[in-house]
From TrEMBL:
SMART domains: HTH_ARSR. This is Helix-turn-helix transcriptional regulator. InterPro entries: ArsR-like_HTH, HTH_ArsR_DNA-bd_dom, Metal_resp_trans_reg, WH-like_DNA-bd_sf, WH_DNA-bd_sf. It comes from Pontibaca salina. The keyword Glycoprotein does not apply. GO terms for molecular function: DNA binding; DNA-binding transcription factor activity.
Amino acid sequence: MDKYRALDAFAALSQSTRLDVFRLLIKAGEAGMSAGNISDTLEVRQNTMSANLAILARSGLIRSVREGRSIRYFADMNGMRGLLAFLMEDCCGGCPELCQPVLDELVCT
């Protein structure tokens, strides 16, 4: 991921509702969630949610699949990995053991 793509992702996540959406979709995992369910869960009006989902999609942090008249959204794990890799690429000054505590925190338990 380059610096400008990372800046887009950070800008998308810098708004409270969008950060909540991204975290919710990470929790939803492979099942994802419909736009309506996301709106209902976070108690956000659907037109407002639609704008926030579009920003997250443009940033590469979420993806969507049309299911008839509905759209299901998913956290884009490749986008998230790219952002994390961007943050960590210069980590530790050549001493990987310094980064191990951070990596241990990132591992799902």
